């Protein structure tokens, strides 16, 4: 009987994990199923482009996995029973339940509203394609002179505000950052960022904490009102609540707690990758929710699963560290901030057109890696243990 591997979610982490497993394991011994709500792989790092009216290349999952043996199941996950090893699904045909021997949980994250009043009713986000398309439609119908406020001064907020300001110079675009603008960057990179905001006519509200979002403005903690016919909320991400409703060990954030092989510390037949997992990075700091974390986490999980199933005592260690932060500032400008392994800024950086090309190369490379999860020829190995032996060894 084949070993059933189920991968929940086909974002960067889940899609790469599934493809890498298919490259590592013999199809006569394994059955790999990817469960995803969308028929296409979505380049989440480009959602600010989608919001401003740009169209991305379609990447159907069935095309990506053609010839690999990976089965694509289009459905939404509604529950996981980690003790019974089952996953509850709903699709166009109704509800269903599938079983697994090994689970890779990669359901990712969505926008976090931080329980700020009015966010759910009035704000837009770019955490996924449906929400980016809603913002796209709203911006398309916003007349010249309309006010747009991006709340959040992190990477997503900077990319969103500059993309919108460049695409719609007829709008009054602003950003509200809780701290200083780009205050984690080096001084020269901060100067470049401020210069770009000036060039694009972006109003910057620093050290500004938004307390409420209304239909046409936001209200700050100190009682100021900032005009905003469109509020874009980019203050962080929150994981889907499915894992927290299971018997899996989760952190206060709802993320699954994993060891250095991305295996659940409470259920050894479950692995978690990407935003859905909390893993320790360099210096004992948790890896941040990002594509830069999710891809190596996927490599690590897939290699660990393949090694354990095929009787290997050791498996490769993925580089669970950071090298740079890539920030697009519209289509023709950007910042590449080089960082330490634990994500602290180094003096070195790239800015301007060269940085924009660098960031584009990274985005293209990330999408390319989905269909090419292993960069060198590999032999698909046979599983050497029975299902009961694998479970016994994992316990």
UniProtKB/TrEMBL annotation:
Its cofactor is FAD. The keyword Protein transport does not apply. The keyword Chloroplast does not apply. GO terms for molecular function: NAD(P)H dehydrogenase (quinone) activity. Residues 4-302 form the FAD/NAD(P)-binding domain. It comes from the Bacteria. Belongs to the NADH dehydrogenase family. This is NADH dehydrogenase FAD-containing subunit. It comes from Micromonospora violae.
